[in-house]
Amino acid sequence: MDRRSSHHITITHSNPNQATRGRVPFPLSSPSSSSPPPHFSFLAAWMKSPVLPRGWAIVGVPRYAADTFDPTHRYVTSPLFPLPVFAALRSLIALYALCTICTTLGLDVAEGSGPSFLSFFTDLSYIGLTAYYIAAAVQTVGYARYGSRGYVLQRWPRALQAAHVLLQGTITTFPFIVTAVFWSLLSSPSTFATKRTAWGNISIHALNSVFAFFDLVFTNVPPAPWISSVVGIVLLGGYLGVAYITHKTQGFYTYGFLDPQTQHATLAAYIIGIAAGQIILFCIVRGIVMLRQRLCERFGRVEMAQQHDPETLDQWEEVEVPAAMKDEQQDSGSSQKNSGLSDSAV
C-alpha cells in the first residue's frame, strides 16, 4: 500500500470515547501523582498527535504524523553526483566552512576584536551557512551509509525538520546579499593587503556564495517555501537592532551605511533596498531551483535522486503488465476455470 495513504485510515483507541479520525483528544491519560505537569502532558500529547497544526505545511513539513518528511530523499541526494561523492563534497564544504569560521574567530580574539565578532551580519550568516552544511553533511553521510533506513532528520521532531527547511532557505539568499554588499560598498584596497585578509575576505565574502550556489544547482533540494522569504525579512530587521545595540555598547557601527548621522535619508534607502533585494533574490533563487528540477526531469537525472529510495524501488517492482500478457493471463485463467467446471461436473 502506498505510504501516503496511511493518513486516511481510522485511528482507534482502547477507550471508545476516544475513537476519532485524524485527531487525538486531550488529555490522553488521567492525571496521577506520578504524571508530569499538565503543560508537559499536553505538549507530549500534541507531539504524538497524528494531525499536526496546519502551520507545518507552510514550512514544508508534512502535517500528518503518519507521513514521512522528504519521502523521496531530495535533501540528501544530487542529480549529478553519486551519493558517496555527494556526501564527501558536502563534508568537505562543511569542514572548510567550520575551519574558516573558527580561524577567523581565533584571529579576531588575538587582535582584540573578538567581542564584536557576533555583531557583524557577515559572521552571523556564515555561521548559519556552516551550521547548515554540517547538518546536511551528517544527514547525507548517514543516508549514504544506511540508505534503506532513510536519514535521521526524517525521524526527528517536526520542529527540527521545519528548522532545517527554513535554514536552507536563508543560506541560499543571505550569502548573495553579503557578497553583493561587501564588494559593492565595503571593499577597499586593504581587502587584499595581507595574505590573512585576502584569504578571509575570499572565504567569507566570495566562497560563501559559491557554497550557496552549490546547494541550489547540484542538489535535489526542493524550492524553499514562501514563508522563508518572510523569515529572511524578519531576520534582516532583527539585525538592525543588533547593529544599533553594538553602537550603543561598543561605540561603533558595524557597517558605515547604517550611521544615521552621515547617511541621513540615504539610510532608509539602504534598508528598503536590502529588504527589496532579499525578496527579489528569493524569487530568483526559487526560479533557479524550479528550472533545475525541470532540467533534471527532462534529461532523466531524477533517477539518481531515487536510486536509494526503497519506496521508489517498490514502485518500480509494480510494473504495468503489457496488454498482450494481460490477454494471455485472462485466457489461461478462463481455461483453468472451464477445466475446473468440467471436472466438477464429472
TrEMBL record:
<dbReference type="InterPro" id="IPR006838">
    <property type="entry name" value="ADTRP_AIG1"/>
</dbReference>
<feature type="transmembrane region" description="Helical">
    <location>
        <begin position="225"/>
        <end position="247"/>
    </location>
</feature>
<feature type="transmembrane region" description="Helical">
    <location>
        <begin position="198"/>
        <end position="218"/>
    </location>
</feature>
<feature type="region of interest" description="Disordered">
    <location>
        <begin position="311"/>
        <end position="346"/>
    </location>
</feature>
<keyword id="KW-0812">Transmembrane</keyword>
<protein>
    <submittedName>
        <fullName>Uncharacterized protein</fullName>
    </submittedName>
</protein>
<keyword id="KW-1133">Transmembrane helix</keyword>
<dbReference type="GO" id="GO:0012505">
    <property type="term" value="C:endomembrane system"/>
</dbReference>
<feature type="compositionally biased region" description="Polar residues">
    <location>
        <begin position="331"/>
        <end position="346"/>
    </location>
</feature>
<dbReference type="Pfam" id="PF04750">
    <property type="entry name" value="Far-17a_AIG1"/>
</dbReference>
<feature type="transmembrane region" description="Helical">
    <location>
        <begin position="267"/>
        <end position="289"/>
    </location>
</feature>
<feature type="compositionally biased region" description="Polar residues">
    <location>
        <begin position="8"/>
        <end position="20"/>
    </location>
</feature>
<keyword id="KW-0472">Membrane</keyword>
<feature type="region of interest" description="Disordered">
    <location>
        <begin position="1"/>
        <end position="32"/>
    </location>
</feature>
<dbReference type="GO" id="GO:0016020">
    <property type="term" value="C:membrane"/>
</dbReference>
<feature type="transmembrane region" description="Helical">
    <location>
        <begin position="83"/>
        <end position="106"/>
    </location>
</feature>
<feature type="transmembrane region" description="Helical">
    <location>
        <begin position="165"/>
        <end position="186"/>
    </location>
</feature>
<feature type="transmembrane region" description="Helical">
    <location>
        <begin position="126"/>
        <end position="144"/>
    </location>
</feature>
